[in-house]
Automatic annotation (TrEMBL):
Annotated source species: Caldalkalibacillus horti
Protein name, UniProt field: glycine oxidase
Domain FAD dependent oxidoreductase: 10-355
Pfam short name (any one): DAO
Gene3D superfamilies the UniProt entry points to: D-Amino Acid Oxidase, subunit A, domain 2 (3.30.9.10), FAD/NAD(P)-binding domain (3.50.50.60)
Length: 375
């Protein structure tokens, strides 16, 4: 155990995609940042994610400021990912395949029409494809799919490599990264700073602390004196080795998705179960994924997944993340609860939090994300 006490201007708790992206953005703006991670960076939800940047497939109705944030984040990705690659000098897959949201029944086509209408207002590139046009786009998709919404603008990254590059980019910009810190608690919270106690890596005083601890954030309810209803929703996911047949797009159905990665795997996800902080996979969870991948792509019926894994999405009570500075403890900024969209949201969220740190206008209605809205 390191007993030396450090003093830093900004400490970010949590080295997932949210914490690292914030650190990267702040470092680009010339701020001195230290990330404190209780285990390994990217070792939780971030490393488990499918990496889809798919707001139009994910959010089917009621566009609001959350949709706006997701939409803006997708548009930031080409520049953001190029920046991470340039600074880190590491490559990771950024795949501009586009996506298909497939439906099996005529009644579901109506829902696609409704989406098409409101998404036009957001200049989303989308079209309903059927028959030959659909088979041309995705030759091995089952004939049982009667139509699909095609979103050429939805993309995906390979999350495990993205987070490695993000960490390296942070290091190269001078961000301090402390991993394997063990339990991390607040020894003292003042108006103008915090004292952070770590189990394994000594104590750290910071002028500002950004809490980006994903599904574990509710541990700080008592210390921060607010309700933080963020809880883990397990996502089980698996991968096949790609054979002769390929999956060209991210293909969504109402019950799951299938997509190919550059490393030769076909990823099939993901369950949503409540299992506390347990990240094991279950036969029930994986079999359900397999059933839906067989329904979409019958060629997968003879395949066995070579890799099965799970991660904990940080879900919130109302589905929106908690982002903002705490009025009663201005030395604390919270940025947690990005649930199914943390990889997608990483660039826009990072800019938002950096703007909050610099007391700049957020450019979004922040009421929806107010971190004290449950208190
Ligand atoms: C199966 C699956 C598929 C997904 N697919 C997608 C997708 O396609 N697209 C998408 O956008 N999102 C997807 N997600 C969601 C996405 O992974 C999350 O929204 C995102 O990773 C959340 O990032 P985070 O940094 O908040 O959390 P995490 O990655 O969980 O990071 C939080 C970090 O904080 C650390 N920590 C916890 N407590 C403390 C503490 N007290 N002090 C210091 N460190 C602490 C943890 O060890 C962890 O490393 C998926 C998730 C899963 C599980």
């Amino acid at each position: 155990m390191n007993t030396q006490k450090k003093q830093v201007p900004i400490a970010v708790l949590g080295g997932g995609v949210i914490g690292l992206a914030i650190a990267f953005e702040l470092a680009k703006r010339k701020h001195k940042v230290t990330v404190i991670e209780k285990g390994l960076c990217g070792g939780q939800a971030t490393g488990a994610a499918a990496g889809m940047l798919a707001p139009y497939s994910e959010i089917g109705e009621d566009p609001d400021d959350f949709f706006s944030m997701c939409h803006e984040s997708l548009l930031l990705y080409p520049e953001w990912q190029a920046d991470v690659k340039e600074v880190s000098e590491l490559d990771f897959e950024y795949n501009t395949s586009g996506s298909l949201h497939a439906v099996f029944h005529e009644a579901d086509e109506l829902a696609l029409e409704t989406r098409l209408q409101w998404q036009k207002g957001w200049q989303v590139q989308s079209e309903i494809v059927k028959g030959q046009a659909l088979r041309h786009l995705e030759p091995h998709l089952t004939d049982d799919v009667i139509a699909a919404m095609y979103y050429p603008g939805e993309h995906h990254v390979y999350s495990p490599d993205y987070v490695v590059a993000l960490k390296e980019a942070c290091l190269r910009l001078g961000v301090g990264i402390i991993e394997n810190a063990g339990a991390v608690s607040f020894a003292d919270i003042r108006q103008d700073g915090v004292a952070i106690a770590t189990e394994q890596q000594g104590n750290i005083d910071a002028d500002t602390c950004i809490v980006a601890t994903g599904a574990w954030t509710s541990e700080y309810e008592e210390a921060l004196q607010i309700r933080l209803p963020i809880y883990p929703i397990r996502g089980q996911i698996c991968a096949f080795e790609q054979g002769m047949e390929e999956v060209k797009h991210m293909v969504f159905s109402s019950q799951g998705y299938v997509l190919s990665k550059r490393n030769g795997s076909i990823v099939c996800g993901a369950s949503e179960d409540v299992a506390g902080f347990d990240t094991s996979v279950t036969d029930k969870g994986i079999n359900r994924l397999l059933k839906w991948s067989h329904k979409l792509f019958p060629f997968t019926e003879i395949m066995e997944p070579f890799h099965k894994w799970a991660g904990l999405r940080p879900a919130t009570q109302d589905g929106y993340p908690l982002i903002g500075r705490l009025g009663h403890c201005p030395s604390i900024i919270v940025s947690s609860g990005h649930y199914r969209n943390g990889i997608l949201l990483s660039p826009r969220n990072a800019r938002l939090v950096a703007d909050i740190y610099e007391n700049k206008p957020a450019g979004l209605d922040m009421n929806l994300f107010n971190p004290v809205r449950f208190s």
